[in-house]
Design brief:
Helix content is about 70%, strand content about 0%. By secondary structure, it is an all-alpha fold. The chain has one domain.
Length: about 190
């Protein structure tokens, strides 16, 4: 069953990655006429890392031999939420006079709201993996998930440019620390 679901995961998360890379590529092409804001670029990198990390972490599900329709829809919904998160950083068609700061701040409530929901799904997904004996929840997760949820709440509450620049850097530091401390590279090795 996982092979079947894995194709769907790959398609949805692949679309999220494509949207982010395409948006970043477009900014490079229109750099002379666009107003580029570095926290927006960092958020693009952050969400690339997030999507890739989730995609990598989905590998644990290959050990589940019996699937329910609820598990199938849960994973599909989680991936769809990640696509929606990625889509908040760039419009479908990026105009030549794109102002990434204005676009980010105009969409910040959607971006941080969807990200908050995505992290809630991540918590549930981690707990389901643990209860299915696929992977224990790393002890670092207890400190990690309140930090990313706090970043989302702060992002929802503030329109301050400096706060959003700080949040982009803080998110990268928190997520990079978690990925390093939990040895994400050992997932496939078991």
């Amino acid at each position: 069953m996982f092979e079947y679901l894995g194709i769907l995961i790959a398609v949805i998360l692949g679309l999220a990655l494509t949207h982010l890379v395409r948006g970043l590529s477009r900014l490079i092409h229109i750099r002379r006429t666009a107003k580029i804001w570095w926290p927006h670029i960092l958020w693009t990198i952050n969400i690339l890392i997030y999507v890739l990390g989730v995609w990598w972490g989905m590998f644990w599900w290959n050990s589940l031999h019996e699937w329910t329709v609820q598990q199938f829809f849960f994973i599909a919904t989680y991936c769809t939420i990640l696509f929606l998160l990625a889509s908040m950083l760039y419009p479908p068609e990026c105009p030549h006079d794109f102002d990434s700061e204005r676009y980010f701040l105009d969409n910040k409530n959607w971006f941080f709201g969807i990200q908050f929901v995505a992290w809630l799904f991540d918590i549930a997904e981690s707990l389901i993996k643990a209860s299915s004996h696929l992977r224990n929840v790393p002890p670092q997760y207890i400190a990690f998930f309140p930090a990313v949820l706090a970043i989302c709440i702060a992002g929802l509450a503030s329109r301050n440019r400096r706060v959003h620049a700080f949040l982009a850097v803080a998110w990268l530091a928190v997520v990079s620390s978690y990925l390093t401390l939990t040895a994400l590279d050992k997932i496939v090795a078991g």
